[in-house]
Amino acid sequence: MKVIYSFYIVRFCQSFLVIIGAALSIFVTDIMVKGEAVASEMPLSLSMSCDQTAKLVANRGAIVLRTGENTFDRYVRDLQFCDLGDALRPEWIPTRDSPQCFIGYTCYLPDIENRTD
Prior knowledge:
By secondary structure, this protein is an alpha+beta fold. Helix content is 47%, strand content 21%.
């Protein structure tokens, strides 16, 4: 009798693992597709001129721009798009027509970045 129950328990566990594996596969695929969609929603500075990129930041106020295949950052027009206590750091990024184009600023916490621990 124990052997029969053990067989059913093993079969149940195998079926359960197959279902979990399929669900995990769908979940991972969904995350990968959404990750690609998010990356495509971020404009690539290398595909725009310096003037276009600077105007995009100025018009939107704050935007996440890709500056390469795996690099991106959030750029802002002015301090109102930063958190309280943040400071502005001027940023020059590569664009289609310039290796260093001033497009705006990034926000940073000056107390943290100037520590000498």
